[in-house]
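Key result, reporting period 2: structure in, sequence out.
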C-alpha cells in the first residue's frame, strides 16, 4: 500500500509537471531518498548531488504509467510483480544489514588488532631502548678492559726490557768475573 501511494504521488507529479513552462534553468537534485520528478526541456541543466538518477522519456513514462494504472485497477499479475519486488527489496535490505553487522565485527577486530599492535610496538621500543643502554654499558666496559690490557701490556714490555737488561748485565758481570778469575789463575 505504501508503494502504491508513493507511485500515485510520483505519477501525479509527473503528469502535472508539463503544465508548468520554464525557460533554460539550472536545478540541483540533492535528495536521493525520495522520488521527485523534474520537468526539464532542451537547454535546462540538472545537477545531481547523489550517485543514481532515473531519466524517463515520454514512451517509457507511458509504459510505467500504464502499469501503475493496472495495479490500481487490481491487475493480479502486476500486483505479484510489485510484491516480488518488495520481497526482493526486503531481502536486499536484510543482506545489507547482515553485511553491515559483519563489517562492524571485522572493524572491531581490526581496531583491537591495531591496539594490540600499538602496545606491542611500545613494549618493543622500550625493550630496544633498554638493550641499547645495555650495549652502551657493555661497550664502555670493553673499552675499560682494552685500556687495562694496553696498560698491562706496556708494563710487561717494560718488565721484559728490565729482565733483558738484568740478564745482559748478569751475563756481562759473569764474563767479567770469569775473565778476572782466569787472569788471576794464570
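The corresponding designed sequence is given below.
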Amino acid at each position: 500500500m505504501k508503494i502504491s501511494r508513493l507511485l500515485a504521488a510520483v505519477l501525479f507529479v509527473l503528469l502535472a509537471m508539463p503544465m508548468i513552462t520554464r525557460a533554460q534553468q539550472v536545478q540541483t537534485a540533492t535528495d536521493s531518498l525520495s522520488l521527485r520528478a523534474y520537468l526539464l526541456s532542451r537547454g535546462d541543466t540538472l545537477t545531481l548531488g547523489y550517485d543514481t538518477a532515473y531519466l524517463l522519456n515520454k514512451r517509457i513514462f507511458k509504459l510505467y504509467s500504464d502499469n501503475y494504472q493496472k495495479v490500481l485497477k487490481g491487475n493480479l499479475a502486476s500486483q505479484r510483480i510489485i510484491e516480488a519486488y518488495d520481497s526482493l527489496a526486503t531481502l536486499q535490505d536484510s543482506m545489507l544489514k547482515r553485511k553491515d553487522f559483519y563489517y562492524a565485527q571485522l572493524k572491531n577486530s581490526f581496531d583491537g588488532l591495531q591496539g594490540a599492535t600499538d602496545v606491542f610496538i611500545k613494549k618493543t621500543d622500550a625493550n630496544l631502548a633498554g638493550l641499547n643502554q645495555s650495549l652502551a654499558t657493555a661497550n664502555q666496559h670493553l673499552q675499560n678492559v682494552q685500556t687495562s690490557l694496553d696498560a698491562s701490556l706496556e708494563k710487561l714490555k717494560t718488565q721484559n726490557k728490565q729482565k733483558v737488561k738484568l740478564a745482559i748485565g748478569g751475563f756481562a758481570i759473569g764474563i767479567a768475573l770469569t775473565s778476572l778469575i782466569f787472569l788471576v789463575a794464570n
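The radius of gyration is 51 Å. The chain has three helices and two strands. This case is discussed further under Risks and Mitigation.
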